[in-house]
Specification:
It is built from four helices and eight strands, in the order βαβββααβαβββ. By secondary structure, it is an alpha/beta fold.
Length: 180
């Protein structure tokens, strides 16, 4: 697994990098050698935020934690990733066997709107998302892996743009386009 580090307002020590590598080594049997782990560490007012995103075979795992100590945040992130992997174990085994490239599918954050008058909207963020045909079940899995409330994708069965979303009752919904 290739690990890249990004440090924001903090200098990363070698012992922290070694600790990250040791913690991520336990995921070796789950991810291929082509897997990429991005580790982002941010310091803000005596709070350390550690974010890890692992991309492999169209799978995306992301976890983030903010703690007073960097190592505590790292431990929390590893725990979150472990739970995500355990939760999706059977689906992961199926996906690992089928293979594929994660770079083909990247989940991005939604465009956010500020609290402004109803007639005026200010776009604060714009992202481009590469979408690939997948099934509804795969889209729900991807949405859960990146811990978002919705996920945009091309439905492999209908070849149309769809959105899956998590409902307040814990179930899932699908938005399908129509002109009627």
């Amino acid at each position: 697994m290739k690990i890249t580090y990004t440090a924001r307002k903090v200098n990363l020590r070698d012992n922290f990098k070694e600790r990250v590598e040791k913690k991520l080594a336990k995921f070796k049997k789950i991810f291929s050698d082509d897997a990429v782990a991005n580790v982002v560490v941010t310091l803000e007012k005596n709070r350390q935020t550690v974010e890890i995103t692992i991309r492999d075979n169209r799978m995306v795992y992301r976890a983030e934690s903010t703690q007073p100590e960097m190592n505590d945040a790292l431990d929390r992130v590893i725990d979150i990733l472990t739970r995500q992997i355990r939760k999706n174990k059977t689906r992961l085994e199926k996906r690992i066997k089928t293979g594929g490239s994660l770079d083909d599918l990247t989940a991005e954050l939604p465009v956010e709107a500020a609290d402004e008058p109803e007639d005026e909207y200010k776009v604060l963020r714009k992202k481009q998302v590469f979408v690939k045909p997948i099934t509804i079940d795969e889209a729900i899995l991807e949405m859960n892996m990146v811990n978002h409330d919705f996920f945009m994708f091309i439905n492999a069965e209908t070849d149309e743009m769809n959105v899956v979303y998590k409902r307040a009752d814990g179930n899932y919904g699908v938005l399908e386009p129509t002109t009627e």
